[in-house]
Input
Amino acid sequence: MVETLTGTNRSAGLSVQELIKYDTHEVPEYLSRESAMPPGPTLVPAEFYYSREHHEREMEQLWKHVWQMACHEDDIPNVGDYMPYEIGELSFLIVHTAEDEFKAFRNACLHRGRRLKERAGKKTHELRCPFHAWAWHLDGSIKEIPCQWDFPYVVKEEQNLPEVPVGRWGRFLFINPDPDCEPFEEFLDDFPDNFQLLPYEKRHKVAEVRKVIRANWKVAQDAFAESWHVFSTHPQVVWGFGDCNAQFDAFKNYSRQHNPAGAPSPHLEGIEWT
Output
């Protein structure tokens, strides 16, 4: 369904909300919520996908101030495990600091700015810079400055690693580069409601697949924020996937996509819908 200046347009077939009404099981209230994004279809300038100036605006106005998923608790399950997280030119270090405690620091030595860790590691007892061996405890407090007598003006107690806020939901770890950001729980708002039937807290990560895509991040994101491409790219699933009847909602800080699985695509002709 699409809101336009002339009303509401949609394809043939059953909508998500109509399918919900036909369900033989009790449907949770949150699945019936609808929140279309006004004013409907909006033209996005192409330079948003390739402009260096726009990229820099995103870094300054978005990525330096928004909560973002950095890793999963299963990535660093033991005390002393750590994992770098990078966004643009920013680098952070997520550390399992104590039992059921995680912290995030800027991934840079306070001496010369050298990255403390280039890749994930396991069960370390300290965070030591590979350049001049400055070292910090897992909680970010300063541990050692070699040859400190050569730096009489450096106050050791003032050399703790700068922290960034950490949030936890569904065993995922989020960070926000902005120390004055809104609380994580306020950012989530009612987002966790959508997972009452699929509690991520009871699930574990068993595999990871990564791909480097030579494209603006929004190009990759856009491919998974619509189902328009399904009948062309994945024609084998149209018998059980109501692609162009998907429902898209925009809430406070997140969007939601409902895809009618088990319902045939309206692109198929001669289908009896009821």
The chain has two domains: 2-40+210-258, 68-180.
